[in-house]
Amino acid sequence: MLVLLLRAVVLGLPSTRATESCLRACPAACSCSNAERGCSVRCDRAGLLRVPAEFPCEAASIDLDRNGLRILGERAFGTLPSLHRLSLRHNNLSFITPGAFKGLSWLAELRLAHNGDLRYLHARTFAALGRLRHLDLAACRLFSNLGGNALGAVARAWFADLAELELLYLDRNSIAFVEEGAFQNLSGLLALHLNGNRLTVISWAAFQPGFFLGRLFLFRNPWRCDCHLEWLRDWMEGSGRVADVPCASPGSVAGLDLSQVAFERSSDGLCMDPAELNLTAPSAGPSLEPVATTVSRFSSLLSKLLAPRVQVEEAMNTTAGLANASLSYTLPSRGVGNSGCKDPFFFASCLLLSMARHVTFGLQRH
C-alpha cells in the first residue's frame, strides 16, 4: 500500500509542477489552466492592443480572439515549443511581420479569420510553420485594396513550406488569380475553401504536380466557363469532390453550373468555347424600330417648336378673354396638316410633319 501511495505522489509531481508553471507565467489580462491537452491560455475579449510580452513556456493553446491587435512583430510569441493551437480571430490585424511565428515550430492550427484589415501577406509569412495542418484566413479581405488595385493572387511561395497542411480556408477574400504551383506541395490537403472570391479561372497548374485529393469549394465566384475550365468539369465528373461552380459567362452558359456545360469540338478535335450572346445583332426579319425612332424624333422636334407658341397664346387667351383667338392658332381646332396653316411659323411646322409622314411611309414600304 505504501509503495502505491509513493508511486501516486511521484506521478502527480510533474502535473502539479506543470500547473504551477502554467499559472505562474500567465499574462495579467488572461486566464490560464492546465488540462489534459496541456496549458491553456485564454486572452479572448481582454481589450488587448498588443500581444502580451510573455506566455507560459508550457502553453499548448493560446486564444487571443476579439481583441484590438493590429501588428504582429518579429517572434511575436517568443519560443513556445509546446504550442499546438493559436487563434487570432476577430482582431484588427493589418500587418504580419515575416518571422512573426518563429519559435512556434510545433504549431498545428492557426486561425486568422475575420481580420478585415489584413489585405496582404508576405511570401514568407508561414515559412516557420512546417507542421501546420489547419490554416484559416477566411474573411480577411485579402487583396481588396492592394496598391489601388482590387485584384490579387495567391502566391506560389505562401504555402511552399506547409507540406502537412490539411485544411486551408481562403474564402471570402478578394482573390482573383491563383499562381501556378500555389498548392503544389499540399498533397495531404483534405479541404480547400476558395469560395466567395473574384476568381474567373483557375488552372490545373495551380495544383501540379501533387494534385490534392480533398474537397474543393469554389461557389460564389464569377466563373468564366470556357475551355480553360474544361479540366475542372472533367475532374468534377470523375472525382465527385467539387460541386456548385456557377457560370457567370460566356452569355450562352451564364446561370448554368459548370457540370452542365457541354464543350464542342472543332474538326481537328480542339475544344471550342461556348458562344457569347450578342443581344445587339440585327434579326433576320424586318424591324419597325427605325420607323418608330424616326417618327418619335420628328414628334419631339415639333413639340419643342410648338410648345412655346402654344403657351404664349394660351396666356393671351386667358388674359384677353377672347373666345375666337384660340381658333386662329391652336392646333386642336384645325389639325396640323390641313389648310389652316396660315401663320408662317405654323407653315414651317406643317411642312416638317409632312416630311415626317413621307419618310415614315417610305421606311414601312422598304
UniProtKB/TrEMBL annotation:
Q: Name one GO cellular component term.
A: postsynapse
User: Is this entry keyworded Zinc-finger?
Assistant: no
| Cited InterPro entries | Cys-rich_flank_reg_C, Leu-rich_rpt, Leu-rich_rpt_typical-subtyp, LRR_dom_sf, LRR_TM_domain-containing, LRRNT
Q: Which UniProt keywords apply?
A: Leucine-rich repeat, Repeat, Signal
Per its UniProt entry, which superkingdom is the organism in?
Answer: Eukaryota
Domain LRRCT as annotated: residue spans: 221-267
User: Domain named LRRNT: which ranges?
Assistant: 25-61
The region annotated as signal peptide is: 1-18
GO biological process terms, alphabetically, are:
visual perception
Q: What's the protein name?
A: Nyctalopin
The gene is NYX
